[in-house]
């Protein structure tokens, strides 16, 4: 009897531990295999892609590529692969621009592994210069380039200014239904989005989701 109670208790403890682990595991299944944990970005990725589908968006532009392919879903987010998978299923295209040859090499390996070369194009360039010369209309813009620092205020300022300059450079390519997602926002010092979001809020943009990532659309697009 005592043994049965002990086994029962152990089973209960096991179930509780498993339940806690599963509640922290933020999967993007069925878009991505269940084993990948997208952590803080999962819900905003889901919301972004839901909105993109609703708006019949096709062209996704990302600044800052997935330098570790799918290996860093928890840390960097692996958005190039996630958006690539989405594009493959929805007749879309992804353009991911990065200033670093090493980052592009890692991203290319990830694209090869996932057979995404037909939908994702990688570009080697400073993102601002690239966006200044870009001539297509963008349906989803993902700002995630200049790495942010948790402690160095100078790097924080430079990262924030860089993301603002990206928005200014690309404004001509945005349309009424464009969606903008900005990464690494809920961080000390305001994160990558601090300055660009303030700037956008003074214009025709509103925040749809304010979390680790900030999701924004044009106010006028919400009237439909
Ligand atoms: C956080 S990672 C991007 C992560 C990626 N979006 C993902 O979801 O996995 C930041 C990337 O931005 C790139 N980067 C930094 N400064 C840049 C610039 N001026 N123009 C373009 N890319 C830049 C870095 O080389 C790095 O690969």
UniProtKB/TrEMBL annotation:
InterPro entries: SAM-dependent_MTases_sf. Pfam families: Methyltransf_24. Gene3D superfamilies: Vaccinia Virus protein VP39. CDD domains: AdoMet_MTases. This is Methyltransferase domain-containing protein.
